[in-house]
Amino acid sequence: MDSQSDSKKFRNALGQFATGVTIITTMGKDDKPVGITVNSFSAVSLEPPLVLWSLAKTALSFSSFNHAGHFNVHVLTSEQDSLSNRFARSGIDKFTGVEYRKGITGMPILNEYAVCFQCKTSLQYEGGDHVIFVGEVIDFDQTNKPPLVFHSGQYVDTKDRGIVNSEDLSSTVNVDYGIYRGDFFLYLLGRAYYQMYHPIVQAMEKAHINEPAFFSMSVLCMGNSLTTQQLRHILEHTGKIPTQKDFNTMAERGLIIITHAGDAQMVTISDYGRRVFSSLLSVAQTQEEDTLIGFNAGDLSITKKVLKDIVEKTNPGIPTFINQE
Amino acid sequence: MDSQSDSKKFRNALGQFATGVTIITTMGKDDKPVGITVNSFSAVSLEPPLVLWSLAKTALSFSSFNHAGHFNVHVLTSEQDSLSNRFARSGIDKFTGVEYRKGITGMPILNEYAVCFQCKTSLQYEGGDHVIFVGEVIDFDQTNKPPLVFHSGQYVDTKDRGIVNSEDLSSTVNVDYGIYRGDFFLYLLGRAYYQMYHPIVQAMEKAHINEPAFFSMSVLCMGNSLTTQQLRHILEHTGKIPTQKDFNTMAERGLIIITHAGDAQMVTISDYGRRVFSSLLSVAQTQEEDTLIGFNAGDLSITKKVLKDIVEKTNPGIPTFINQE
């Protein structure tokens, strides 16, 4: 691995091993605090309690860590990404505006952390272009805050892997009194649905389009002609099933075209109908943007996955042709 | 830190530093594959390419790693939790049923991994009750699968921290043709809502309760009397606003009690009304359980958070008293 590109590939591969993020501090000359962001931290031994981390021989802080004899390891919380970035840069006064106190060995302790380990440098080992510092943990303090995690060159958040059980759900409802809590899922789903659709419902009212007509046009825009029976079947789960009168009204207004094939009555969207539905869809798109821009992308993609799983699990048998990705 | 309880606390504190999970393999006597789950892996040096990990001196595999001179580090993917558990136990034949091939140094390579580093043991250092193995990376292979992550004694999943922007959303809709993709959020939200509520809508129809009555009873079960004006305001965003005729019908059926205070008309839920609503709520509870039990708990709690954020962001000014946690 001599070339620069190989070295980049190796760094990239190392990044596939997820790590927490630490800031390790010590005291430099003239009692000046020194610190650096490190993710090569790991546990070594329980008895005696040892931890290790590696520091580049070329690091500006190398001589401080080499001489001080002690250091403090701060395991960072999920909210400390900007502090992590600050202490990862070199050539700036990292401690400007950062509060700290001195620990039992005189080394700086930051105000916030998930855990802080106060260590005495007990061994230093050669490690290629780095030196491996092994520290004996003299004291530590733990706050149980969620961790900052680094993977594949970026910070990520963690989520637990538990499985929803009956008790998790029943605690949100008191059936005897007809009372549910604000995090009853069906309540949240219904309220989010109604509030998000409100501008679209208002636009529908203004265009004199009722819900059965809106849903019918939504399905018809997706594909070819359907029999009225097929369309009614597709919309059955919404409870907004178009009646013959709804179809007739839509045809009279030029929104759909009704044809006959034998006994079956076929419906197709008209160009005018597509334009009317498009204008409602653009209200929906604006509402989607107004609501969701700025949300956490990971959260939104998980929410979509959960909604898709719900749709799949509760599917009453809707043909898949309106169900495409 | 002499006592057992201190040692447990220290282990616990170390667990707050999140890590990936690796299985490290080597060849034992008689060409028998040997492997162990390790999370004390870390990067050391780029030039030469070095990595390290620590092994307890008391580990059964210690002499194999000590003598073989080579090892392979497999950084595990999020789907390899059971393999991780298997290789973390001792006293079983870990490789039974596990396929592997031999790498360039003759050491075992598992079929799946996020990254595999093939290493030559270049240094061994003393580390208390562990030995620190430093390996030079001879070759590596990367697959970019999502990582298995260990934090605070359990496996967790990761999610990225990006922010939703306009382009993420607009790609799901083609307004000109009135066409949207299956992951248009509003479509998913609406469809999940209608499908999940379908059994409740059916129960409502059976009980001859229309949507304005259902929503009115839902609000009235939560608290005290309201004026009809207040109640209509609260339900405005649903588009299912009860008319005077709806109130009269509900009162005639004994579901609510109408009283008068000056000019205002007050409505209160009756005991019978509470029982009717409770029976509908129990249908909702059953549907919630049938749908959500077995879902990933982390995913569901993120989904609830997103729905709450949507409710808050799109709140048309509903009083908070029906909005409690």
How would you characterize the overall build of this protein?
- The structure is a homodimer of 325-residue chains.
- The first copy, chain A, has 325 residues and is α+β, with helices and mostly antiparallel strands.
- Chain A folds into 2 domains: 4-156, Electron Transport, Fmn-binding Protein, Chain A (Pnp Oxidase, Chain A, Roll); 197-322, Arc Repressor Mutant, subunit A, CATH 1.10.10.10.
- Helix content of chain A is 37%, strand content 28%.
- A 7-stranded antiparallel sheet of chain A has the order 3-2-6-9-10-5-4. A 3-stranded antiparallel sheet of chain A has the order 1-11-12, with no helix packed on it.
- In chain A, helix 5 packs across helix 9.
- Chain A is elongated and about 90 Å long.
- In chain A, 43% of the residues are buried.
- Mean pLDDT of chain A is 92; it is low at 321-325.
- Chains A and B meet through helix 1, strand 1, strand 4, strand 5 and strand 9 of A and helix 1, strand 1, strand 4, strand 5 and strand 9 of B.
In spatial order, strands of the major sheet of chain A run: 3-2-6-9-10-5-4
Q: Which structural class do the helices and strands of chain A define? A: alpha+beta
**Mean pLDDT over the full residue set of chain A:** 92
CATH classification class of the largest domain in chain A: Mainly Beta
Number of strands of chain A: 17
* Series of H and E elements of chain A: HEEEEEHEHEEEEEEHEEHHEHHEEHH
Distance between the termini of chain A: 43 Å
CATH superfamily of the largest domain in chain A: Electron Transport, Fmn-binding Protein, Chain A
Oligomer: homodimer
Give the CA-based shape of chain A. elongated
The largest inter-chain interface, given as chain pair and residues per side, is:
A-B, 139 and 139 residues
For this structure, the CATH topology of the largest domain in chain A is Pnp Oxidase, Chain A
Helix percentage of chain A: 25-40%
